[in-house]
Amino acid sequence: MARAIVMPSVHQSDVPEPLVVSSSADINGSVSTDAIVKKNCYLHVRGNLTGGLTIEPGADVLVDGLVDGKIINRGGRLVVSHKRLTACVALDGPSESEAGAVLKINLTAIAFNWERFAKRTDAECAAVVECNAYGCGIDPVAGALAKSGCRTFFVSNLAEAKRVRSAAPNSIIYVLHGLHFGAGPGFAELGARPVINSSIELAEWDAFVTSSQWRGDYALNFDTGENGLGLSVEEAVALAPRVHVLNHGIVLLMSSLANDGKANDVQSERQIVLFRELRRLYRGVPASLASSSAILLNPKCHFDLVRAGSALFGINPTPGSANPMLPVVELRARIVHVRDVIPGENIANKEGWFAKRRRVAFVSLGHADGFPRTWHSKSKLHAVIGGYCCPVMERPSLDLLPIDITDLPDARAARIGEMATLIGSAITIDDVAEATKSTGREVLSGLGSRFHRIYYAT
Q1: In angstroms, what CA-CA distances link 294 with 25, 52, 258, 263?
Q2: Is the dihedral of CA 110, 116, 120, 125 positive or negative?
Q3: What is the pLDDT of residues 47-81, one digit of tens each?
Q4: pTM confidence score
Q5: Is the Cβ–Cβ distance between 34 and 51 less than 8 Å?
Q6: Checking DSSP bridges between strand 452-456 and strand 124-128, what pairing results, if any?
Q7: Which domains can be identified in the chain, with CATH numbers?
Q8: How many other β-carbons are positioned within 10 Å of the β-carbon of residue 265?
């Protein structure tokens, strides 16, 4: 049996070579060198791990603080225990016994992912929690991020701004969908900042500020090439003299890259140059251009504030490369019916003709729950039942999903009432998106309200 080894605090000057754990190690302090945890070994770091980390098959790693280096996981397990969130656990939706599916959301992993972005830039790192935190629940997510040090949030509308203000009272909140007629008092009450996307919105804001005598702050969003929301470049130039007026209220310049997931993209380079020129016109006003992918791939566009979005929830911000984010969600659905299905054609073998039978488990999950309806013709979507990957046979109906359990070694694992995992450590959100011709953001934000939800911190 491997014996526990208690080691003193480890620092870069103490350990110039990589820390190799070949039995078990309990380290009372932080590790700033690279660490390699050998097969079936255990490492507990009671502090931060800021060097690279390699986890070999069967190894267990527990870190009480932050993990900020490159992670290579070859089949082990990593648990990041964020001390500031250990008491943050909540439930939502129907009870587990009443619900057809359970959605678990790891607040520690969200905090870890935000901290990873924050460490990659000298700019302030904001969190984009639009669309109800991409379906994960804006209230617990904003609270967890605020406890981790996030000060600035971007939301879709005033309703979401109100929820963030309740969860993170001292935060700065930007409302991406801007301002509509009559909404000014709501911004003043919450102390929220509209993201102005058009000259009409700006006129409405000016009228409200003048009539109410309220000195409100706002952001200007420019369309530099994404062809989305935003003021035109011509409008941006025309509005620039505003910065010479006392108490002008412009506190942020914004734009978005059309191809932020590509490093050294020609169009992105043109946008960066254009945005830099606009920034000179608004000298002294902070600027923001980079979202999740660009934070990792293009330091030239970090400017003063970066905006981490869907990657906070485990979606890969660098498609085609290993996902640097920790997984956040786990979705399990209850088996409600099991039956044998005869496909309708016979198969011959040397013993004669026989009917090929398939055994199918139906789980309580469908497009009424937001599970994708579109389907790749050669889908490789699987569910995990009893520790085994079983192929999903067909796209879901309103609230049922058929899973082929013919080759399941232990039929008891698929009894009525047992659970099948559709999203988890073995099947990521990006895997589901690829199999259903969707995107990670669409899969995540579509997950419905019928689930029993568990918010927890490891």
Answers
A1: 37, 22, 11, 8
A2: positive
A3: 788 788 899 988 888 887 777 677 788 888 887 76
A4: 0.79
A5: yes
A6: unpaired
A7: 18-81 (no CATH), 120-313 (3.20.20.10), 329-456 (2.40.37.10)
A8: 18
